[in-house]
Amino acid sequence: MTKVDSPADQTSGPAPHSTTPPLTERQEARRRRILHATARLACRGGFEAVQMREVAESSQVALGTLYRYFPSKVHLLVATMQDQLERLHGDLRKSPPPGATAADRVALTLMRAFGALQREPRLAEAMARALTFADRSVSPEVDQVSCQTTAIILDAMGGLENPTPEQLSAVRVIEHTWHSALITWLSGRASIAQVRVDIETVCRLIELTEPGTGGRAPRPGPLTSG
Q1: Cβ–Cβ under 8 Å, residues 64 and 89
Q2: What angle do CA 147, 46, 193 make, to 5 degrees?
Q3: Structure confidence by residue, pLDDT tens digits, 101-119
Q4: Which residue of 3, 32, 123, 147 lies most exposed, with the fewest beta carbons within 10 A?
């Protein structure tokens, strides 16, 4: 039987350096193979199925090489989430959701992202568990997930190049709500309908931060969810 890493083992190892040089084309291709192999294993068996040795074999890299890229499976799964969000962001740019307001568009975008994760629940559960287990050593990978989510939201708002502090604050609250909604749905504590209501509600914060609103309360009524 393959040994399952304990939470303590999953976050062990040296923290990645924040000033690492850019990857070469060959290194980037190797990293992408690793992330794809991780996603395949997680899709089949969830968090427990992602074992470092099996990832190395599936991606055709040496185990030592894998550990140089990702010190633990938590690092690996959080990086996989960033990669999945990056792919989703590309799809959203090609086919942006409709919506009369920024709040509408952000809500539709996040529900589309939620739908993509919903189609692969074992992968979604594995990535969410990794985020829960992540300690300070995983901060660079967690920051990348946050930056990617922020970029998705800002694009849906209209591609703001210089968001105000108030707008960035609203984005952070929306991001936290989206991640929390994902975890509560995965644990069976929220339905898709409840998730939708929470996302649509928190997205109304965007209206409070629009220039010229003067802190005006958001309009009542549900957002168009499409």
Answers
A1: no
A2: 65
A3: 999 999 999 999 999 888 9
A4: 3
